[in-house]
Amino acid sequence: MSSSLPITFYDIAQAPPVEKTCCSPNPWKTRLALNFKNLPYTTTWVPLPDIPKVRTSLQIPACRKFQDGADFFTLPIIQDPTTDALVGDSFDIAIYLQKTYPASGGGDLFPPQTLDFALTPNLAILVPLSERRGGPEFAEYANFNANVDAAFSVHVQLTVQEFPLDPATAEATKAEFVRRAGVSSWDDFALVGEAREKTKDSFRDTLGGLAKLFLRDASGPFLLGARASYADLIVGAWLRMMCVTLPNSEWEELRGWHEGVFGQLHDALGVYAQVK
């Protein structure tokens, strides 16, 4: 099947200009996948406080829950007029795009490969969520997605203070993050001095296991050498967040860790990073 009608892609609006500050990793997974598939789409930008209303209006239930059992309403969502499909989870969207448009753009998002990266146990995630619902389809990729998400999420406090909040919704967004994390104020997210250096060291060490996968094929920059797959897009989406939210000096540090594999991946995925 080919798509002639543009897909509507719902992403989270950050500070204007949103095309430069968009940095939420799960929407970035979808944007990279849409561009990889070279599918026509338009972006609908949704302020973070409006996400529950948008999901509810589209009758798409939350696919995760917070630790207290409350629904976690988030994006991305795609609405495909070619098939009348509505899909509201980044991994499910990737599967949908592959099954519906298998030959489009860069081809197969899920080529067979070994993705044996596992997060070091006993690292605390700032805002714990329930496990993603879903069956064993593309299980190797699903497990990789979960472990990469966890590896970055446990260090996400590094990004909070320079997060590009939209001034129009900043106070409501801060209050929502404070509520999600169970802390008393936005200032509790501050990470400075020795504590920040320790978190950076933990981040670098945690990503060492991931870097080994990229070093298996010296032709790089992707896990399968010159051929990108959804696994590369998963990591690349988190790197997009880090590029926007880390201080410049720390982003440059991350780019150089582990023989520079993450900087090379980020740059190579630039061809799929157009914001439409």
Describe the protein's architecture and organization:
This protein is α+β, with helices and mostly antiparallel strands. It has one domain: Glutaredoxin (3-Layer(aba) Sandwich). Helix 8 (193-214) runs parallel beside helix 10. The chain has a 4-stranded mixed beta sheet with strand order 2-1-5-6, with helices on both faces. Strands 3-4 form a two-stranded antiparallel sheet. It contains 10 helices and 6 strands, in the order E-H-H-E-H-E-E-E-E-H-H-H-H-H-H-H. The relative contact order is 0.16.
Defining traits:
4-stranded mixed sheet; Thioredoxin-like_sf; Glutathione-S-Trfase_C_sf; alpha+beta; Glutaredoxin; Glutathione_S-Trfase_N; GST N-terminal domain-containing protein; 276 residues; 6 strands
Compact overview of the structure:
The protein contains 10 helices and 6 strands, in the order βααβαββββααααααα. The protein is of the alpha+beta class and about 280 residues long. This is GST N-terminal domain-containing protein.
